[in-house]
Structures are given as structure tokens and as C-alpha cells.
Write a structure and sequence with these properties.
With 628 residues, this protein is of the alpha+beta class. The chain is built from 22 helices and 24 strands. β13, α12 and β14 form a beta-alpha-beta unit.
Length: 628
């Protein structure tokens, strides 16, 4: 038998292993390595000793000594800092999908007319009671990055179209949920995304096919539409009230741009003024504006003017101060009187320039001195000072005035004559100025009354949604069926189309088709009916393509024709929902790496603020003396 020497790592000894005769050194080393996993590493202090013994035994030393030394040199390479954590591969996909599903589950119960409310407590102890998807998610403080991007979705949806904030999250969550099965089967995310995008294109084509156009001037139709869009909200119990307010407000501020386009700026020209007290039924849309200000000198100035001539200013009606500190040296006592006289004359000139135009009401964004007040009240003109710029813009739009920057540039055309009445009323403890009965106002104020602040906040949120819906329809007068009918039609059409798709993309495409059913399914769940029976019946009706308008009656959970029940959705709300949900799902699926713990880079040259050092008594002696 031929003997080979093998080296064991500890204890420091040589072990002789017996091998068959025709064994080469490398085979022997491999054999020995499998026998003992520790055989490759030789302790540093033992290397010399072992070599001596091997030479003493005059055995051919196998090559594993050189092997062991090279493997010992190769240490693991650190690329990322210790503070960074990195997750990659399918682990990330699963984490993202779980997080998105969790967000979707939070607001799943707030979809539809039978929706639940959520009560959120914020850090200051205030409460928010709402079922508006965006309002709920906005209040949540969420740690997971994928969940954060889901919340962005509902915000985008709210800013773009103002409605469908809940459905967008539910749909995106479902899209990711059905993709999970494919990721487990080692599908590449790009394949899934490609199929999803194809499904989105086909879904939008179906929307175009089943949508119907409407006449914007048909008020009852518009009312029904706005009502069905906010029927899922808390205020639906007050009947037509909110829908009426929203329609009145949006039709007031709509501006025709020509070529059939209408511009409706809700944020700028519609102000919602919430005043606790009174009943909800007292809420009205003013044909003009109101603001929380009183006239400057209540006793002397009129508080009610019929057909007022209004001048709006953007400049202070008081003596101009110097840009920087100005010192005037006066040598004679009379000069002081001259100085005061000049100031008075300056203000008097300003007032004369304004009073030339015989206004009844002067409103300025800046200050108004006592002297100017005196001149105005003498002339029987009411004045209001320090008004917000946004309010001033609204008044200008309502009564047709132009905001003037300098009194000497005033023209007759700048005077607003469109208002029918200026009046100061006391509501509760505060005075409010009303400029109402305008001829053709392009701005308005919605006055909301209600029992409590929480109620008013919720009504305001619903009103915003209703106004957005009304705005959408004024811009794109097209409707699609509500109550989950649109989603079911899209789903049925995509299922039929999937059979004609070739290759691996067929399965994710079909899954996307199934995902659209999440909306009607959730509606059925929230009504508390038998979900499986209802869904099967609905799928059966849509599969043979009888009536695209068959959906779920959100109140009773029964299957009904949406045309008869007047349950509609605005076309661009639905289109935006589909686009946002599918694009977001594709984006989250494409993420395959999450690196966290990255610190902010400091700008070059800036050093960390050093901690203040505290001197002790011993240090005082060591300091070098500063030469005088």
C-alpha cells in the first residue's frame, strides 16, 4: 500500500491515511478532503512542524498544501457598507406584494355605497372620520417603501380626477396578488408587465366601446351622474343636496376656451367656507363671494350697499415709509409741521384719485391708515383692508373688477359693477362680508353649515369629490356603467381575447383579466351577500356578452341593470383608475432589489459639527499663554 500524508487542522499532528495503490496525489487529497472538512486549513504555527515530519517520513507531499494556502488567502469581498441592508430577488417581490395587499386591505371595506367609515386619530389628538380612500391613506404613517408608493397612487388619482381613490388601490393590490403565482413559477417580471400593458390597452379599448356620450346641459342627467359618483360617500344620506351644490358651483366657474373645450378651475375660484351651526340644508352656493372681514370703521361706513361700484387695490393706502431707516434732521420747528402736512397731503391725494371714480366700496390687500379711513367715511365709501390675495382674485372674477396696483393708474374700466349687493352679516360670533347677486360670476363661494366640525370636514371632502366629478363630465361628457359592470365587461372581453394570444404572455394576461373582478367582488362583499353565487351569476351574464350594463346594485347587492338604476361613472375616472393601477403594479413588479440604510451625503468641505468640549480644571494649566 502506498501511503500519503494528509494534514489535519487541529490538533497539530499528522494523520496518515491509507489509500489504494494506484492513487495519484490529487485524488488522495480529494478523498481526504471529503473525509474531513477541516483538512484544508493548516494552523500557522503547525505548518513548519508538519512539513518537518513529512520530510522526515520521506513521503511525497501531496499538492493539497498549496491548495490550502491559496484558498485561505481569498477572503470574502465587502462591497456595501455594514450599515446598508440589501434584499434582492423573489424575496423583494414577495415583500412588495404583501405590503401592497396590506394597504389594499385597509381600505377595501370603504368601497361602494354600503361602505364602512374609518376613524383615524392623529398625533394632536384630533380625529378624522371618513371613507374617502385618499383621506385615510394620507393620515397613515407607513414604513414599507412599496406601501408608500401605493399611497402615492391614491393621491395622484385624487389630484387628477378627484374620484376613484379607493378603487385604484384595490385594483392595484389585486393586480399584484395575481402576479404572485407567476413569480413563484419563476416567470420573469418583464413578461408579466408586458402582458399587463397589453391588457391595459385592450381594457381602454373596451371602455371606449361601451361608453356613451351625454348632454352637459341636461341638468337631471348630470345630477344623477354626480349623485351616483358620490353615492358611496357619507353624505349620500342627504339626497341631492351635495350633488346640487357641486353642480351649481362648477357650472358657475366654467370658462369656455373655444373649440368645445371648457376650463373649470375648482381650486382657485371655488372657496368652501365652513361655518359650524345651523343645519346642513342651509348650505348654499352664493352667486358671488363671501369672506371673513368687516368694514374698517363699522359705525361710520355703510354695511349694506345695493349695486355697489367696487374698486380693488393691491397697494397700501398709508404714508410710504422709506425702504431702509431714514433719519431726517430738522433745524426749524416749522419744518416738523411741514413734514406732517406733506404726509397728510400724500394720503389725501391717494384718496382723491380713488374717489374720482365714485366707488361705493374700496378693498385693499394692504394697510389703510386712519386718515384715509376718515376721507372715505366722509365721502360715504365703505372700505375693507388686509384681504387675502386669493379672496381678492375671487372678488375680481365675481364682480368684473380689475385689481389695480397704483391708485394713479385707475381707469373707469377697472371698477367692478357686476355685483348686485354688498352686505355684512353676523354669523355666530363673526362678521362676514357678502358680495352677492353678481350678474355673471366666474367665481363663487360654497357656504356649508352643519352640526359639528367633523361633519363639516367630511361634507367638504365629499363636496370636493362631487365637484371633481362634475368638472370631469364638463370636460369629457362620456359615461360608463358603474356598479362593477364596466370591470366585468372588461374582464369578460379580455378572457375571450386571451385565447388568441400566443406564447408565455397568455397566462399573465388572463390573470389580469381575472384581477379586474376585484371591484365587483368587493362591492358584493361590502353588501353582505353571497359573494360566490353573485359573482358566478354575473360572470355568466357577461360571458355571453348580453348586456354590458349588468352590475351589482351597491345597496341591496342584487344583480341589476345599471342603466335603469342610473348608476354611472365618468369615463375619464375609470380610464385613469385602470391606467394608474396597472402602471403602478408593473412598476412594483420591476423592483428586484431594495438597499436601505443609505445616509445623506455631506457636501464636500462641510465637516460634522464638532461637539462642544468642556474644559476641566486640569486643562487650564496646559493651555499656551496668548502673548499680549
Amino acid at each position: 500500500m502506498q501511503k500519503w500524508l494528509t494534514l489535519a487542522s487541529s490538533p497539530i499532528t499528522t494523520s496518515i491515511t491509507e489509500f489504494p495503490k494506484k492513487t495519484t496525489p490529487l485524488q488522495a487529497s480529494a478523498f481526504a478532503a471529503t473525509a474531513s472538512s477541516r483538512i484544508f486549513s493548516v494552523p500557522k504555527e503547525s505548518k513548519g512542524e508538519t512539513l518537518d515530519k513529512a520530510l522526515h517520513l520521506q513521503q511525497p507531499i501531496p499538492r493539497l498544501l498549496t491548495l490550502s494556502s491559496s484558498s485561505a488567502m481569498q477572503s470574502p469581498v465587502l462591497v456595501l457598507k455594514d450599515s446598508l441592508t440589501r434584499e434582492s430577488g423573489s424575496k423583494v417581490h414577495h415583500a412588495n406584494i404583501q405590503a401592497s395587499k396590506a394597504v389594499a386591505d385597509i381600505i377595501r371595506t370603504t368601497l361602494g355605497p354600503r361602505s364602512m367609515l374609518k376613524m383615524l386619530l392623529d398625533a394632536q389628538g384630533g380625529i378624522v372620520v371618513t371613507n374617502d380612500g385618499n383621506a385615510i391613506l394620507r393620515e397613515l404613517d407607513i414604513a414599507h417603501p412599496a406601501a408608500k408608493s401605493m399611497i402615492e397612487l391614491s393621491r395622484t388619482q385624487d389630484e387628477e380626477v378627484g374620484d376613484g381613490t379607493t378603487s385604484v388601490i384595490v385594483l392595484a393590490g389585486e393586480m399584484l396578488h395575481v402576479a404572485e403565482a407567476f413569480i413563484d413559477k419563476k416567470y420573469h417580471p418583464t413578461v408579466i408587465c408586458r402582458a399587463y400593458n397589453k391588457a391595459l390597452e385592450d381594457a381602454l379599448a373596451v371602455l371606449d366601446k361601451i361608453s356613451m356620450s351625454i348632454d352637459v346641459n341636461d341638468r337631471s342627467m348630470m345630477l344623477g351622474l354626480v349623485k351616483s359618483c358620490i353615492g358611496t360617500k357619507f353624505t349620500s344620506q342627504f339626497g341631492d343636496l351635495i350633488a346640487d351644490l357641486a353642480l351649481d358651483a362648477t357650472t358657475t366657474v366654467g370658462v369656455d376656451l373655444g373649440q368645445g373645450l371648457r376650463e373649470v378651475d375648482i381650486k382657485k375660484y371655488i372657496k368652501v367656507e365652513k361655518i359650524p351651526g345651523g343645519q346642513l340644508e342651509d348650505s348654499i352656493v352664493l352667486k358671488g363671494v363671501m369672506f371673513n372681514k368687516d368694514v374698517v370703521v363699522p359705525g361710520k361706513m355703510k354695511r349694506k350697499i345695493i349695486n355697489p361700484r367696487i374698486i380693488l387695490l393691491d397697494c397700501p393706502l398709508e404714508y410710504k415709509k422709506g425702504e431702509n431707516q431714514t433719519n431726517a434732521e430738522l433745524l426749524r420747528e416749522e419744518d416738523w409741521a411741514v413734514l406732517l402736512k406733506m404726509e397728510e397731503e400724500y394720503i389725501e391725494n391717494l384718496c382723491v384719485q380713488i374717489l374720482k371714480f365714485k366707488p361705493d366700496l374700496v378693498i385693499t390687500e394692504k394697510g389703510l391708515s386712519d386718515l384715509a379711513c376718515h376721507y372715505f367715511s366722509k365721502a360715504g365709501v365703505s372700505a375693507i383692508r388686509r384681504l387675502r390675495k386669493t379672496d381678492n382674485n375671487r372678488i375680481a372674477k365675481a364682480c368684473g373688477a380689475v385689481i389695480v396696483n397704483r391708485p394713479d393708474e385707475l381707469q373707469e374700466s377697472d371698477v367692478g359693477t357686476g355685483a348686485g349687493l354688498f352686505e355684512v352679516k353676523k354669523i355666530g360670533d363673526e362678521f362676514f362680508s357678502f358680495i352677492v347677486d353678481c350678474k355673471d360670476p366666474k367665481a363663487c363661494t360654497v357656504l356649508l353649515r352643519g352640526a359639528s366640525k367633523d361633519l363639516l370636514n367630511e361634507v367638504e371632502r365629499n363636496l370636493q369629490d362631487a365637484m371633481s366629478v362634475a368638472r370631469n363630465i364638463l370636460k369629457h361628457p362620456k359615461l360608463v356603467p358603474g356598479g362593477g359592470a364596466t370591470e366585468l365587461t372588461v374582464s369578460a372581453t379580455l378572457k375571450q381575447k386571451s385565447s388568441s394570444i400566443e406564447g408565455i404572455e397568455k397566462w399573465p394576461y388572463e390573470a389580469a383579466a381575472v384581477a379586474f373582478e376585484a371591484i365587483p367582488r368587493t362591492l358584493a362583499q361590502n353588501c353582505g351577500v353571497n359573494v360566490i353565487r353573485t359573482m358566478t351569476a354575473l360572470q355568466g351574464k357577461h360571458a355571453n356578452g348580453e348586456n354590458a350594463w349588468t352590475g351589482i346594485d351597491g345597496n341591496s347587492g342584487e344583480i341589476a341593470d345599471m342603466k335603469e338604476l342610473k348608476i354611472w361613472d365618468a369615463y375619464n375616472v375609470k380610464a385613469q383608475t385602470f391606467k394608474t393601477a396597472i402602471e403602478a403594479a408593473s412598476m412594483l413588479l420591476r423592483i428586484d432589489d431594495i438597499v436601505s440604510g443609505i445616509k445623506k451625503r455631506q457636501a464636500p468641505g462641510s465637516t460634522q459639527p464638532s461637539k462642544p468640549t468642556i474644559e476641566t480644571g486640569e486643562d487650564a494649566d496646559n493651555e499656551q499663554m496668548i502673548p499680549e
